[in-house]
Amino acid sequence: MRAEAPSDDGCELKRPIGLIQATAMVVGTIIGASIFVQPSEITRWVPSINDVFWTWAICGLLTFFGSLVCAELASAFPQTGGVYVFLKEAYSPAVAFLWGWAMFWSVHSGIIAAIGVVFARYVGFFVPLGDLGIRATAVGGVLLLSAVNYLGVKQGSALQTALSVGKVLAIFAIIVLAFALAPNPNPALLGGATAVSHGIPVTNFVQALVAGLFAFGGWHMVTYAAGETSNPQKTIPRALMIGTLLVTACYVALNAAYFHVLPLEKVITSRRVAADAAESLVGKGGAAAISGLVILSAFGALSGIILAGPRVYFSMARDGLLFRWIGAIHPRFHTPHRAIILQAVWSSVLVATGTYRALFARVIYTEWIFFGLMAVGLFLLRRRPGYCPSYRTWGYPVVPVLFVVSAALIVLNQVVSAPLESSFGLLLVGLGLPVYYLWISNVHH
């Protein structure tokens, strides 16, 4: 196992992230704003309460399977960079570079920009903001959280932990209030399913699963900060498993609360299901409370995603796949400060120009290509001498196979349903290959 090397000036990354902080990062990164709107998307595809619960449960299970695969790889390669490191070890630096390339230009930076805008729009519920004001607020949020992470991973992870605990408590409060203030449940909830549940096509289930899995996005990001995690071989696998199970429980219980309060038809047509549920319970004040929760939740997700990304670019620079200066560690704060600045600037550009919309919509599915490759890589690595993980995936080989199949379904679904946008996403990722070989040839010359 390769240890984290100090930078040219002798600085090293500190390891202040323990199990609580790592678990908070998993929970906080996954629970963004989508759980407060995405249930309607799923219910449109599967208009049956039973099937909606099955969809969320299966999404949680598949995410858990992915976390088990990630847990083994993290225990074998507990270095900064996570998925980037796993792809490099299983395949080649070229495949790992493509992951980092897609992350920076579109996937990761696009997610930061998109969540920043969601955060700003909900701030607009309390303070009137025009389009310019929303963009300025989103950029302000990105820069503020980047500054917190610049000043130290201890501060960044402490903020992440506080926000994660806050949002889980708020979700718990919504669930308790829903059942306390509406003691007589929606009759459809008692019946379980609607009359149309038996006629739902398989393709609709796949679409619902895709929508649900996007609400579980970000579970892998805790692996990026392995170099700053205490005893990462044990801490990261535990954090992944505890975190994904906790999020699944929150999601299923929150959906039960929605259906307890609102009729199925209302959930299907709602654009902000959590706010509608709260409004039906406590009037207009409920919408304000939910807007506050979405602000907290989006801010918490943003914090974890901003913390995670620079660790990949830092690791790429250390491997000679980016400019060496990007891999510098701040002498006082012990953070990859230049990588943090780079990410903050590009994400802010995406917000300011509005280009994140096209990038996010067209490219977000491409990360599942790499997730599938990561799980296939587990099979390749197990056949190699010297591969010594301290944790081995439960249910191997069935669990990684199911995860590979789910990743393939997501990619195939996107390619079939939106071929033009899909080809744009694949082209953007593919462009990284000539850039990689050009970079390598220049380095060697």
Structure description:
The chain is mainly alpha-helical. The chain has a single domain, classed as Amino acid/polyamine transporter I. The chain has 19 helices and no strands. It has helices at residues 19-30, 38-45, 49-76, 83-90, 93-123, 131-150, 153-181, 187-191, 202-215, 232-261, 264-269, 273-282, 284-318, 337-353, 356-363, 367-382, 398-417, 419-430, 432-444. The radius of gyration is 21 Å and the shape is globular. 53% of the residues are buried. The model is unreliable at 192-196 (pLDDT under 50).
Question: What is the compact description of this entry?
Answer:
The protein has 445 residues and is mainly α. Helices cover 72% and strands 0% of the residues.
Which helices and strands appear, and what pairs or packs with what?
Blueprint: H1 19-30, H2 38-45, H3 49-76, H4 83-90, H5 93-123, H6 131-150, H7 153-181, H8 187-191, H9 202-215, H10 232-261, H11 264-269, H12 273-282, H13 284-318, H14 337-353, H15 356-363, H16 367-382, H17 398-417, H18 419-430, H19 432-444
Radius of gyration: 21 Å
As a percent range, the share of strand residues is under 5%
CATH-assigned homologous superfamily: Amino acid/polyamine transporter I
Spans of at least 5 consecutive residues with low confidence: 192-196
Q: What's the CATH topology label?
A: Amino acid/polyamine transporter I
- Helices and strands, in order, run as HHHHHHHHHHHHHHHHHHH
Instruction: Quickly count the helices.
Output: 19
Level-2 CATH architecture: Up-down Bundle
What is the overall pLDDT average?
Answer: 86
What share of the residues lie within helices? over 70%
- Global structural class: mainly alpha
CATH class: Mainly Alpha
Distance between the termini: 30 Å
Q: How many domains, in number, for the residues?
A: 1
Strand count, sense and barrel status of the largest sheet are: none
